[in-house]
Amino acid sequence: MPSTKATRQGAFFTHHTTELNENLKRFWETEDLKSVYDTRKLPSYNDRRALDIITSSTRKEDNKYIVSQPWKNWPPSLPNNERKIRRCFETLTEKFKQNPSSFEKYQNAMSQYLDPKVAEVVPPEELHKDLGQVHYLHHHLAPHPKKKLRLVFNTSMKTKGKSLTTEIHQGPDCLNDLVGVFVRFRQKPIAVACDIAAFYHSVYIPPSHTDFYRFMWYEGNDFNNRTIIMRLLVHLFGGNSSQSCCIHALNRAIEDAVSAQIINQQQAHIIKRSFYSDD
């Protein structure tokens, strides 16, 4: 007959094993995984439509990848919101005039969007487009307790019930399962982490789409000067389809590296499974 001490130790072990299993079960349920072994995510009908658009439109030109947003209808027709956005911008300008020191922080956040590879000034002869073929974005600063101020473009602001968010499919969830990334990260004695700088700004949108991403700024980067109209050339951080489009471009770049014999298929498989983008 086992001793009382042994019985207590066994009971202790059984209790904590049961508790651990329950905690692990709740964790899997929270992560919404159907199986701890299968991390594939089944796409919806709209996701499949979006992926078809993304895949068929992806191309490489001048050493850069161009991927179309998965518009629900092409060409889209968006209400003219120039006056609405101009009023917002005029309000912002008044704030800068009342408190000039606040402009410096805004200017620093805007600087990345003044890069000619990221955005361009709309030429005078292209300012006027057919009705429905132009859309303007309002922008503002978003504070973060652990990061520098970030400029955010509001793609959800509606005019007559429409916005970029309502007119573009979100696209499939292409993210790797975070649990799997963490587990594989612990497989070897030494782990290496890296980051793709300006990930979304590394993938371009088709030239025919750029006028749906217009925004206002100041000539010479000075709020005392006249307003100029600019348009984005790249996928927007915060755009509802940007993650799907950019991850697809990343995977295409990895596949192209295999075709060019820069890496082999096994290395490509490892690389694809190792990336994660915060959603």
Q: Explain this structure to me?
A:
The protein has 279 residues and is α+β, with helices and mostly antiparallel strands. It contains 8 helices and 8 strands; from the N terminus they run H-H-E-E-H-H-E-E-E-H-H-E-E-E-H-H. The strands form 3 sheets. A 3-stranded mixed β-sheet has the order 1-2-6. The protein has a 3-stranded antiparallel β-sheet with strand order 3-8-7. Strands 4-5 form a two-stranded antiparallel sheet. Helix 7 packs antiparallel against helix 8. The longest helix has 27 residues.
Shape: globular
Mean pLDDT: 86
Computed over alpha carbons, the radius of gyration is: 24 Å
Query: Structural class of the helix and strand makeup?
Result: alpha+beta
- Describe the main β-sheet briefly: 3 strands, mixed
Counted by DSSP, the helix tally is: 8
Helical fraction: 25-40%
Number of extended strands: 8
Series of H and E elements: HHEEHHEEEHHEEEHH
* Approximate strand percentage: 5-15%
Strand arrangement, major sheet: 1-2-6
